[in-house]
Fold this protein.
Amino acid sequence: MSQVATSSAPTGSGSAGRRANILDIRRSKDDFNVRRDIEIGLQPSDGREKQMPTILLYDELGLKLFEEIAFLDEYYPTNAEVEILHTWAADIARQIKPGSIILELGSG
C-alpha cells in the first residue's frame, strides 16, 4: 500500500452537515503486479498455504455476473446486510464515539 487516499463524505441525515474522512487503503494500480503476486502466492515464505490472487478468478464479464448475482433476491448475504443496515443504522451510528475510526473490510 503505497498511498492512502482521503476524501470526505456526508455522515448521514442526522449529521448536521458534518463530514467523515474516508481512508482508501487499497493498493494503487502502480502497486499491482499479477506476476509478482502469483510468484509470492505459489512460494509463500512464511509457511502459509499457496494461494492465487483472486483477481485471476474474474474477467470483466465475471465481475458483471457476480454483481448481478449479488443483487438477486435468492442471494441472501446482500439482502441480509442491507436489511441489517436499514434496521439498525441509527442505533449503530449512536454507538460510535466521536473520533472513532470505522473499518469496512468489504466482501470476502
In short: The longest helix spans residues 76-95. The helical segments are 34-42, 60-70, 76-95. The first strand starts at residue 5 and ends at 10.
